[in-house]
Design goal:
Elements lengths: L3 E2 L5 H4 L5 E2 L26 E2 L3 E10 L2 E8 L4 E8 L8 H13 L14 E9 L2 E8 L2 E4 H7 L6 H22 L1 E2 L8 E4 L4 H12 L4 E3 L5 E3 L16 E3 L6 E2 L2 E2 L13 H4 L4 E2 L1 H16 L16 H12 L4 H4 L3 H6 L1
Parallel strand pairs: 2-12
Antiparallel strand pairs: 1-3, 3-4, 4-5, 5-6, 6-8, 7-8, 9-11, 10-15, 11-14, 12-13, 16-17
Length: about 350
């Protein structure tokens, strides 16, 4: 861990002690189905990573990463550090995401959709007790669309929905037509709102200094922090505009052969379910389902799981046929599986 530097606490910081949680109840990333402590890098608030990024607080976690608000000590601004898990012999989403970002960086384009995709600023690796962790330094964002919807029920009126769809379509048009990238993972949790009120950053860091996040000590080197939220905009300011994020499941190329399933279950396109060759059209199918969810507040195809909670492709397809009718004959002929089922 030669690229990590511990901070020296000021007298003010030393006077404030974090609340230590003593519980066997799982919290944060511990609640994930396949959680193992050794797969997560032991990020510490206050530490400096890559001799540049000082951690100010924890923003969240997902199945294969944790995210942290950082102060870029060289650029003198704030960024987000996304630290991947270290799963041995498994191609991580962070590796895929970095490949896609490097691919996008090679494209010389003035397409308006390009600016509607979250930016990558830097990347590096950390070496922890459980292996190597890919780290991505990303454009700072506020909350996800999903979280904002939970805070503001029935938020999506028609004008707001139109604006969101327009921005998404522009971002997808750039990915599909100029970058030849398929996102494959459109959902409200992968749409984030830009942060327009910079005073929220000062308030976040002040709150973390004066009232540190509760911590759960797993072992001598690993602490789990509770994620913290930015406060809501004040002074007449609003949330920012939606930006497409998380390219960890994206694929480069116009078409992809059948293989490991992509897309959230509820938005999975027929050609993916039937294990057919698929292309950028699956993003449009996915987008249509997402639009329905945003406006109606419920899934278009919700009852698609079996008694054990697993995805039931036959039930899913039955709901599709019941709603929009049987697929065209030429589509059915594209796959032996399709012909057997239909």
């Amino acid at each position: 861990m030669n690229n990590v530097r511990r901070r020296r606490l000021s007298s003010r910081e030393c006077s404030t002690v974090a609340h230590i949680i003593h519980t066997e109840t799982p919290i944060e990333e511990e609640t994930l189905p396949h959680y193992k402590a050794e797969h997560y890098y032991p990020v510490r608030i206050g530490n400096v990573y890559h001799a540049r990024y000082k951690v100010a607080g924890k923003l969240g976690y997902r199945a294969y990463s944790t995210t942290w608000l950082c102060r870029d000590l060289q650029a003198n601004n704030y960024t987000v550090l996304k630290v991947s898990t270290s799963l041995p012999d498994y191609p991580t989403a962070a590796d895929r995401e970095l490949r896609v970002y490097k691919h996008l960086a090679k494209i010389d384009s003035s397409h308006p959709g390009r600016s509607l995709i979250r930016e990558l600023y830097d990347s590096f690796d950390l070496h922890g007790p459980g292996g190597t962790h890919r780290c991505l330094v990303l454009q700072l964002m506020n909350v996800t669309l999903l979280k904002m919807m939970r805070m503001n029920p029935r938020l999506f009126d028609l004008p707001l929905l139109r604006m969101t769809i327009k921005r998404l379509l522009l971002a997808l048009d750039f990915l599909h037509t100029e970058a030849e990238v398929i996102h494959t993972d459109l959902m409200s949790n992968n749409l984030m709102l830009s942060l327009e009120d910079s005073s929220m950053l000062a308030d976040f860091t002040t709150a973390e200094t004066e009232n540190p996040s509760p911590q759960k000590l797993i072992n001598q080197s690993y602490i789990i922090y509770y994620s913290q939220n930015f406060r809501r905009p004040t002074g007449g300011r609003n949330y920012g505009l939606p930006v497409l994020c998380d390219l960890g499941e994206a694929r480069i190329g116009k078409t992809q052969a059948s293989g490991p399933f992509v897309q959230p279950h509820i938005y999975r396109a027929p050609e993916v379910i039937f294990e057919m060759t698929w292309g950028s059209a699956i993003d449009i199918w996915n987008l249509a389902g997402l639009i329905w969810d945003l406006f109606e507040g419920q899934h278009l195809f919700g009852d698609i799981f079996d008694a054990k909670g697993g995805h039931d492709p036959f039930r899913h397809l039955a709901l599709m046929v019941a709603l929009i009718g049987p697929p065209p004959t030429e589509f059915v002929r594209c796959s032996e599986t399709t012909e057997a089922v239909l």
